[in-house]
């Protein structure tokens, strides 16, 4: 195929080609020098890592020592249980120094003792609901858009069902989502007294886990978007979430606003900037500390899905901060290079909700 040259095409056709390139996130090389140089990726907005850092919220401390986060605006709804765990206040020794206090790992990881995790879960359940015996339902998370209807019978299952979202209108149980960088989203229907919890990594976000989940709530409970409130919990922020070009391509295939979710982040270290060859690595794109790198804002991506599902901006609350930046407070899979426990985000309906 001969090289692309603008003079070979009439102006209307050139405009059509440029429009197609723009829709694909590309721009034509106006020099027209070679077929290999016809297109390049359009430049994204540029930032430094420091510009994208979000502060961490101060945790509250339960009587049993568990440190957890709540949504201040939700505390007046006395029919609702909810909470986001941190790594502080448990019994786990697998991820901390020998002289450090125990930690609140809530995932059955290979490094931790199963009985210890079960005790941690009772501590967290007690912090959120006031009763350590409150049934807790979670799922085997698979980075999908699958959302399941939960009941108290699920709490006694020997093996959790596979999904990335749970919903219920049954009082007296907690729905739990485990994370260590992925984004947890809690949703409550104020009028119909129904709740849901979603786990959103980048794959689940591309598959519209939040939009799908709210659609399921509308079908199952008759929920109306104007009655829904949502909280997005601690997860890896755009400051630390470097990804490869394939992630950008996946988002562009699904969302018209995809490019607004990404930034080109440049290293602010003057030595790295002046002598980049000294820091060359063989790591895959998005996994090297050398800028510029492509960073994804997963929190904003899921906030956009809540808006697309019909929630009002004021009904969406952001809780926590970047898990990788604040490893003293949160577990971070990426920040600890895979050696991390799991946090849990939980939501439920009080058993006496009808009287409240």
Describe it for me?
A hairpin with a 5-residue loop joins strand 4 (60-61) and strand 5. The protein has eight helices and 19 strands. The chain is globular, with a radius of gyration of 23 Å. Helices cover 21% and strands 22% of the residues. It has helices at residues 11-23, 49-52, 114-129, 202-206, 209-221, 245-252, 270-274, 298-308; strands at 26-28, 39-41, 46-48, 60-61, 67-69, 80-85, 88-92, 136-137, 147-149, 165-168, 174-179, 183-189, 194-200, 228-232, 242-243, 262-266, 293-296, 316-318, 343-349. With 356 residues, the chain is of the alpha+beta class. A six-stranded mixed sheet has the order 4-5-6-19-11-8, covered by helices on one side. It has a six-stranded mixed sheet with strand order 9-10-13-12-14-18. Strands 3-16-17-15 form a four-stranded mixed sheet.
């Amino acid at each position: 195929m001969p090289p692309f040259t603008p003079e070979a095409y009439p102006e209307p056709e050139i405009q059509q080609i440029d429009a197609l390139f723009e829709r694909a996130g590309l721009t034509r090389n106006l020099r027209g020098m070679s077929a290999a140089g016809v297109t390049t990726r359009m430049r994204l907005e540029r930032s430094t890592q420091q510009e994208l850092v979000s502060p961490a919220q101060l945790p509250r401390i339960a009587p049993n020592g568990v440190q957890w986060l709540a949504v201040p605006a939700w505390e007046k709804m006395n029919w609702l249980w909810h909470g986001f765990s941190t790594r502080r206040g448990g019994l786990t020794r697998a991820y901390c120094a020998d002289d450090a206090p125990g930690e609140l790992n809530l995932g059955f990881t290979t490094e931790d003792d199963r009985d210890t995790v079960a005790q941690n879960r009772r501590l967290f359940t007690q912090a959120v609901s006031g009763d350590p015996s409150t049934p807790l339902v979670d799922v085997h998370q698979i980075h999908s858009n699958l959302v399941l209807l939960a009941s108290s019978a699920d709490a006694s299952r020997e093996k959790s069902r596979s999904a990335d979202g749970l919903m219920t209108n049954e009082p007296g149980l907690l729905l739990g989502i485990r994370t260590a960088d992925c984004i947890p989203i809690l949703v409550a229907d104020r009028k119909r007294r129904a709740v849901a919890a979603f786990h959103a990594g980048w794959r689940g976000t591309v598959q519209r886990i939040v939009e799908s989940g709210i659609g399921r709530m509308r079908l199952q409970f008759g929920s109306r978007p104007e009655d829904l409130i949502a909280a997005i919990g601690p997860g890896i922020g755009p400051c630390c979430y470097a990804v490869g070009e394939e992630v950008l391509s996946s988002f562009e295939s699904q969302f018209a606003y995809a490019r607004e979710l990404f930034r080109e982040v440049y290293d602010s270290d003057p030595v790295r900037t002046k002598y980049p060859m000294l820091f060359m690595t063989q790591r895959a794109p998005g996994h090297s500390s050398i800028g510029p790198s492509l960073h994804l804002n997963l929190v904003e991506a899921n906030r956009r899905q809540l808006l697309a599902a019909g929630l009002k901006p004021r009904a969406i609350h952001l809780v926590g901060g970047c898990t990788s930046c604040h490893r003293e407070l949160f577990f971070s899979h990426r920040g600890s290079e895979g050696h991390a426990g799991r946090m849990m985000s939980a939501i439920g309906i009080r058993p006496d909700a009808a009287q409240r």
